[in-house]
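hey all, quick one before standup. I had two proteins in the batch that finished overnight and I want to keep them in one place so we stop losing track of which output belongs to which input. First protein below, input sequence then structure tokens straight from the run.
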Amino acid sequence: MPERDDEEREFDIRWADGAEHKEPSARARMLAARWKHDPPGPVPFRPEPRHVGRGRRRSPWMSAAVVLGCLAAVIVLLGYLDFRPPF
């Protein structure tokens, strides 16, 4: 096969996939070197969710009530500001 210019060369994915030796990525090499001396501990499949706030889980109804209460307060405030007594 004659040598072609760099512009004419094309990467052949089938040729690359068929390679006998595939070099790992830099991150894979770094993790392999780190884990060789200090292997990672076991990790649960699905960890327990961390609760935000005081440790209690809030009801979705409570969140909806707070949102609707704030919305009602804004509506009342806007209505009050628009109302001007006639004196």
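OK second protein, same deal, sequence then tokens:
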Amino acid sequence: MMVSPPADDRPAPGPGAALCTRLFSRQPVFDARLRTWGYAVTFGPDLAPGPDAGVDCTLDSLPDPMPDIAAGVIALADALFGQGCKVLVNFGERSILDEAPYALPAERTVIEVPGCDALPASAAMALQGLRADGFSVALALDEAARAQAAIRATADIVLLDLDGTDPGQARALVEALPRAGALLLARGLDDAARLALARILGADLFQGSLFRSAEAVRARRPTSHEASRFRLLAAIEQPEPDFEALARTLQNDAALSFRLLSYLNSPAFGFTGRISSLQQAMLMLGWKLLKNWLRVAVLTDLAPDRKARQILLLSAQRGKFFELAASGQAPARDDPDEVFLLGLFSLLEPLLGMPMAEVAPHLPLAPGLLDALAGRADNRHALWLRLAAAYEGADWAGVEALAGRLEVAPLVLGVAHYKAMAWAEAVFSGP
């Protein structure tokens, strides 16, 4: 897996930047081999402040989320569709009748239709037209069972939420509604038991937080390769790093050296002369950007399997999200660089399949961060980890509560999350 040099922190250009003000979360959807098939997007409140509000706003003081978020999806199109994956988006009856989905790329848009059992015949005709033009349609399995036949016939994907669903009830739902070639997407897969049930039920697609859970960890110690990577991390995190020693270390690592020099000499950077040495690379890229690139590159080397891409992507996104959000605190309470590392290392257990207790001694982190990562303390660092889980799970009430405790305005969080997602995608955009 290749890692591009990190992008800078300037706001993303284009219409997507406007959606920094709307809370949204995306959750990966996997195929049967647990490769990323696409993303399901969930939108929360619009945090756009009034003329006198500045960024000092709370979710309670803002309007309820729009019942139809078509405009929001359109504004985020560049960010959400940039990697070529399918994206599942809720479109209500009004948007379907107004043909709002046509603003999005048909071949990659899955129109998720909530409340399909109450849609009129006019909506069925509109959905049939959208399908004819290349869009896919997703219907909730329990709702589709009650919907009119014309609506059921539009389903390319049927959705089954296994969170809180009795296995017998789930089986009855699947057996009662012939899918006529539609794919079955199982949601709410937060543990191995639900994943196993989804496979038994014949699911084709899988969605849930299981991919980042620590269920599969086993008692083992770091390999020699992993230990060498942890030593490199320790060298990177020195308060005053020895650049000559670091250059020597990198020169002894042919893979990292080649990747760094290859990317710096790519057309994306536009350097007039060829960069041929690591010392020159350090000078041209700057220590902050080089350090962040090395952090992520070392992490990818710890888990080179492409199946781990989503964990790596989310790790990088969490780190940048924490960094940008902490930079927006007023007054400053948390060190942005410190919480970047907290987010970056927050998924090491599922990434390495190894208990945090075995990993922690090798990490260049302060005791408070290690305690939070290992679940031994309910400190401020633990609040950041809970914020990430709430955001990724679209728990907007939890996000609001944690934003208050961390003293970060929700609007700041919205901006930080959008930019962090764009940054992480840029980092992992290499082949």
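Flagging for whoever picks this up: Residues 224-427 form one domain. The chain has two domains: 15-212, 224-427.
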